[in-house]
Structure formats: C-alpha cells, structure tokens
C-alpha cells in the first residue's frame, strides 16, 4: 500500500499537469509500476520522460455499475480544485429542481447541515460551509433517494426552472387584468384588496413554485366543497354518498333553490349539495362526536391534505356567513321538506358545520398542497401520507371537472379541460391530474362568481402547455409538454450526450451517468462520446468516460477511427497518452 506520497521521491510533490493529476488521482499504480517489469511500456516511458509522481488518492471512489448516489452527487457538485463541496452551491442546485429547503422530506438533511455550521467556531452561515465527501455523505444520508431522483431529472417536470419562468410570464400577464368585483355580501370579504394576486404550484413530486401574494390568508369558502366531498366518499363510500346527492351540473347558480328530478341536490359542488355532504359527515360518520369534535376532526383531515400545515379559522367570517345566510337556510329548509337529509340530522348544527367549513382560513401556498394531494391520487406529495383513497379522489376530480366553476363549468371544461373549484373569496383550486396542483388567488370575481385572474390564468396555461384533458400528448400541436424530458427520445438522448462530450460539459456527462444512461451510445456515424471528447481535447471528460464509466476505448467510427486516432489527429497529446496508458492498463488487467 502506498502512502500519500510521491511514488518516485517519497516526498510531497507538486502535481501540475492535468494528465499527472489524473494519473495521481485515479490510478492504482501498484499494479502498473512493478519494478523490473520488463514489459517496458508507454506508462513507464512516460514516467521516465516526465518524471511523474503518483499518489494513491484514498478519497477517490469509483463510479462503478453499483454507483453510490451520495458519492455521485458529491462528484457532481464538488469544487474541482479543492475537492470540497460548497453547501451554498449544492442547496441552490437543490432549489433549482423545485425542492424547498423546508420540505419535510429534507428536514433531516437540513438539521444535519445546521449542526455542522453550529460546530463551526466562526459561526459562519451554513451556505458558506465546505464539506468533504465523508461529511456530505453523513449529512445527505436520509434524503439521498429523493435527491438522486431530483438530480436524475426524474421529477414529473424535469425542467422545473424553465417551467417556472413560463408560469411567471402568465402571472404577469394576468396581473394586468383589472376586471371583476370583490364579493361584498359580508364585510370581511368586501375588505379584501382587489390587487391581491398569488399563484402557487406544487407538483406530485413536491416541486414548488409560488409567486405574488401567496401568504395572504383567505377563507377557503367553496374550495372546501370538493374536500368535504372527498372526505365523505372516503369515510362512507360513494354508494352511500350518492344516495343523497347527484352528479349532474345544475346549470344554475351555486345557491339556486333547486333540486334535481329525484329531489336531490344536483352535485356536491353547489351549496345545496355541500350542505348535504356536511350533514352526512355529521350524522353518518361517528355521530357520537360533539360538534366541536367533528369540527376538529374535519379540520385535521383538511390539514393532512395540506401536508400537515396549520389551517386557521376565521370566526368573524363564520359569524357573518351565518348572519347573512337567508338563502342557505332557505335551501336547507327546502331540502328538509323534500327529505334530503339523512335521519337524525340536527339541522342547525349541520348548517353551522357548513359555514365553518367555508370559514377555514388558508393561503395560496397551503391550498396548492391540497390541490397537489388531489393531483397525486390522495397521497400528499410533501408529507407522503395517504390521506384519501384514489377512487375517492377520482370522483372528486370528475365532479370538479363538470361542476366546479359554477355556471361557467361547461365553458371551463371546454376551454381549459381541468378539474377546478372556485370560491367567493377569489381562491381557485386547480388540479392537473397526475402532474400538479395549483392555487390561484385574486379576489375580483366575474359575473358568475369566479376569480377573473384565476380563470384567465388557467386559459393562458393550457394555451402554452398541453394540460387540457383532451390535448393529445403524442401529436400535440404547438403546445409544450413540460412532463417530458427534453431529451427523452433515444435520438435526442444521443445528441445531448455527444453535445455534452464535444463541449466539455463534465457536469452534464455526470448527470447522464447518474440517470443510468448508456454512455457507450454512438450516433449514425458511429461516433461516441469518447470520440468527441478526445477530438475536442476535453481531458476531464475523456478521463471521466474511461475511468468512471469504463466506456470501450477502441471503438471505431464509420471511417475506422478510434478515440485515440482522434486525439492524435487533432494534436491532443496528453489525451492521446492518457488513452494509450488506459489501453495498456486494461490490456494487462482485463479483470479491472
Ligand atoms: N359562503 C358561501 C355561501 O355559502 C360560499 C359560496 C361560494 O364560495 N361560492 O354562499
């Protein structure tokens, strides 16, 4: 075993040339430099000629086929010169994938990082900290699966920053829209600023993007309807729920005094249906619970949908709602007359429960997590908790799609093609199934009671992206599919790989390796990444491809040229020597 010393002089020596550094860093020289080895070879000649020194670098860890993700990540982000990883750079790369520092799935890692910086005597901020491989490994241990997923571009929206930029453009466009009027039937809503405009997005992988007034609290109002309906489906089953409420759009106002031909409310997204859903939750599931207990229970369910974030309750809104509820009471009595309620319903308590659900307070960020839980089949992407059954969520989305936007539902389904629910506070909960959830918040409402900016945002969104339910994903016309990796097809994969090699983009090559791509792929002319890196003179890429990826060094392109020929033809001597040495080493040690 060699010490960390120069092999020739057994003292510390300067490593200057890149080839020398490469040899020193990567080569197990014990197997090469056998004294008296009469197979005097290039390597020995080279050593004699340049008086190379070799250091066995113990920190080197090979990227084999059983690649260790934490090591690969470290390699991806470490500073080439210092061999250390800057936490600041690493965290901003994490952010670029759409993950947030406060994501509960990263909490352990963030706690570990804080511990490291606390140990730091100068108390410098965590972002300026530099880590060794060992430190990095112990810090990211618990989150390595998620991080590897993120950096392998395997999240549902791989190019998240680009996607966010597009969202931002739409956001600013809609900001200019000053149409609509803020709801004024109760003073608490009337007071809300018409200028508030917030957009929050959470993907099913927990990638997040928020813009504008995303922390302003608002009461969720009718956005509670799909959630209560989902809970009722989960607890009581669809058969029970739909003996009391239908699945048809009413074609009338959300608070219209009207029932369907079976004398049931048309659907759970309008007031009549939602009041019935509240009565089912109160009287048919654990009826022994007091009103207070049932409120806590339901609020807790809502919070779980929001990744265990704390919801608020606006008592002033609740009291106002109750006071200005002639229409809702009228609806209730009308339904009572037609025996719409389950047995043992306590009418007053049930109405209060409905007003309480409308008066729950949240913000854009929080509601977007709820929407993402619906997009993700009932599993909250942030807490990873299975909150609702996928069948319940499917039913919720179906009715949001056909009935969620009041009397605009038909047009919305036609133009936007996404399940959504709006509320009088100006909030809109929108779901792109299997992709992401959104909350749009802007108080001014159109004549039908939907947020003007919210509706415009959705229309602009589906103009740009193929999110409409009936957009064809394969033959999409002029729309972008952000779900697709830019280089998803094999052909594009190769182009991208070769481009990275030709331009000397080592980080991108590492990314390809990390994503499990076959780095030996060749283009139509039989040119491989190694050919390109060798001919363009990118030593570090050649090194990476040979030693880490172990791509074959002697492949011929269609003109019969190997990567070694390329290096020689283009005058990259050091690279040519490197390939020759590698060739020799591998010829000698085929088991390597
Ligand atoms: N609190 C409102 C009501 O019951 C909720 C309706 C809505 O948001 N559209 O009338």
TrEMBL record:
At the top level, the lineage of the source is: Eukaryota
Disulfide bond among the record's keywords? no
Q: Where is the Glutaminase EF-hand domain?
A: 72-158
The record ties this protein, via Gene3D superfamilies, to: 1.10.238.210, Ankyrin repeat-containing domain (1.25.40.20), DD-peptidase/beta-lactamase superfamily (3.40.710.10)
Q: What Pfam family does this protein match (any one)?
A: Glutaminase
Which reaction(s) does its UniProt entry say it catalyses? L-glutamine + H2O = L-glutamate + NH4(+)
Task: Fill in the subunit field for this protein.
Answer: Homotetramer.
**Name the UniProt record assigns to this protein:** glutaminase
Organism encoding this protein: Phaedon cochleariae
